[in-house]
Amino acid sequence: DQQVKQNSPSLSVQEGRISILNCDYTNSMFDYFLWYKKYPAEGPTFLISISSIKDKNEDGRFTVFLNKSAKHLSLHIVPSQPGDSAVYFCAASVNFGNEKLTFGTGTRLTIIP
Amino acid sequence: EPEVTQTPSHQVTQMGQEVILRCVPISNHLYFYWYRQILGQKVEFLVSFYNNEISEKSEIFDDRFSVERPDGSNFTLKIRSTKLEDSAMYFCASSGAGLASFGSYNEQFFGPGTRLTVL
What distance in Å separates the CA atoms of residue A95 and residue A57, rounded to the nearest whole number? Predict the structure, then answer.
């Protein structure tokens, strides 16, 4: 039951360039989407979120884009920094976030100095 | 900055034993969750808890699992008769300083996790 999919298990990006991580979902009931960053042996750290009424949300170097018709979202990191190297999870929820999160399988981002 | 804390960081137990994993959610949050991640797999939802009762549970959360908020600050996950396949990282999360509604959203904040190893 892969309601949230991250098709790229890994991504390598040069420091200073843009990192683009992608996520697709199948459940049209999802109305709230989040990106988490995770280091090994640590809990997921919340990065940025977007609701289904918006198509873009920006916070510093991080921007999330939502294309509801395509059931697709993406996370842009500009400029990429070595500390951004981690596994990034896309997650989705209904009811504005106070329900279970359904996670994707993650994308391991490596920033090359 | 407020954070979710979990103890212990590591727990090793023999198959068939009972374990209790402890969490202290962010103090003004109202919604509490347990998730787990088996090595190399995605994070999976176990259970959500609101207003002193379970809101939703997954099929993983069978009758060996239980949750409790015994004293208004701690949130515990108990696993009875542990099995080898219970070995995983268990994450507690909390959200919701108030009722979420249109235009107001409640991010879930995660603790650092407890690594459970069942031998």
Answer: 19
Quick one: what percent of chain B has pLDDT higher than 70? 92
Under an 8 A CB cutoff, do A43 and B104 touch?
A: no
Residue type, B113: G
Please confirm whether the linkage preceding B112 is cis (ω < 30° from 0): no
The answer to whether A31 contacts chain B (CB < 8 Å) is: no
How many CB atoms are located within 10 Å of the residue B32 CB? 23
What is d(CA A104, CA B12) in angstroms, rounded to the nearest whole number? 28
Q: Tens digit of pLDDT for each residue in A65-91?
A: 999 999 999 999 999 999 999 999 999
CB contact under 8 A, B113 and A43: yes
Contacts of A46 in chain B (CB under 8 A): 107-110
The single residue listed with the structure tokens 């069942």 is B118
Instruction: Please state whether beta strands B10-13 and B114-118 pair in parallel, antiparallel, or not at all (unpaired).
Output: parallel
pLDDT value at B115 more than 90: yes
